[in-house]
């Protein structure tokens, strides 16, 4: 079965058993938001105990506090009333395994998927590539605790974020499923 | 119990019953990605039938093909091998209920949450506000079928996206849990 058929079949089963979820209100019932990575191994609803209707979930490569994540967070509190936010990066994140220079070079040489070799280097591939990757900040990560702390700081310092919002910084351990606190982020994220 | 304590308690229970999920590989096992809205009522793992490890999930306000979503999608295929992408907006989305001018005005007058009155207008609130909202494109939505189609088109036309990637456009109906196809997006999203 194709991916599309599989997704639609799963969706039909979900809708069949939808219960009273059609009556949920638009604003998150539990008043918080989670910013986390797109990584396939992470299921924030499961790892943080969310039912449908509970909380906003924002996800991108790395779980970074990008301009677009800030856009989403501001809408989350300003129009939909969230008051606490989690920034959750994770161990073994793909964003640790390359730099801006690496991905720009790979995209310039080929648009096809670059396999990661046993030697820890990506296949360069053969064209056609494109140089547009040079204009993107890929928001790669060197150290997870640092990236969580920087992102919490960026959010707290943003002129559109009121001081009263508490921001919590955690790292999700993909080998255990546990959330591990980042103390420097906790310090930076305190509600004022 | 506070939100933080609740999340940590739920996480401890999840980790307790983690099974062999610690051995999942980094690249998505089913080779696809979903771009959808941060809305609390949406659980993409549930509505599309994803287990941990299956697929990348990217979420922002509206599920829009923002520059940051494009960054994430390019990493998703270029380094982690996904070949099919879903763009899934939804009915009753908060992004339909305001315009750039409205949210810029609200943020300029106050940073606190603006309640939506019975008259369909947001409370203006009292200061301090900030004008930084003027520099953000809020990516609001007028019509869901149009926004899905535009976003699929933008992704397909992006110079870093190879023609071979198929992009599917759907609207999730929050009253039924069903994914409804957007035919114009299907047309625009075909793999070349």
TrEMBL record, chains A, B:
<dbReference type="Pfam" id="PF00484">
    <property type="entry name" value="Pro_CA"/>
</dbReference>
<keyword id="KW-0479">Metal-binding</keyword>
<comment type="similarity">
    <text>Belongs to the beta-class carbonic anhydrase family.</text>
</comment>
<keyword id="KW-0862">Zinc</keyword>
<dbReference type="InterPro" id="IPR001765">
    <property type="entry name" value="Carbonic_anhydrase"/>
</dbReference>
<protein>
    <recommendedName>
        <fullName>carbonic anhydrase</fullName>
        <ecNumber>4.2.1.1</ecNumber>
    </recommendedName>
</protein>
<comment type="function">
    <text>Catalyzes the reversible hydration of carbon dioxide to form bicarbonate.</text>
</comment>
<dbReference type="InterPro" id="IPR036874">
    <property type="entry name" value="Carbonic_anhydrase_sf"/>
</dbReference>
């Amino acid at each position: 079965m194709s991916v599309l058929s599989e997704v639609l079949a799963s969706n039909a089963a979900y809708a069949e058993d939808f219960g009273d979820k059609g009556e949920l209100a638009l604003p998150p019932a539990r008043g918080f938001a989670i910013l986390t990575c797109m990584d396939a191994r992470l299921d924030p609803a499961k790892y943080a105990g969310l039912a449908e209707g509970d909380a906003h979930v924002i996800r991108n490569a790395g779980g970074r506090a990008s301009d677009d994540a800030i856009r989403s967070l501001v809408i989350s509190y300003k129009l939909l009333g969230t008051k606490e936010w989690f920034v959750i990066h994770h161990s073994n994140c793909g964003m640790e395994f390359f730099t801006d220079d690496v991905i720009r070079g790979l995209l310039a040489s080929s648009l096809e998927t670059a396999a990661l070799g046993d030697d820890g280097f990506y296949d360069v591939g053969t064209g056609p590539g494109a140089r547009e990757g040079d204009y993107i900040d890929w928001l790669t990560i060197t150290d997870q605790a640092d990236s969580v702390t920087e992102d919490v700081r960026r959010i707290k310092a943003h002129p559109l974020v009121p001081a009263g919002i508490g921001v919590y910084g955690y790292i999700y351990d993909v080998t255990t499923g546990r959330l591990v606190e980042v103390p420097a982020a906790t310090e930076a994220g305190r509600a004022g």
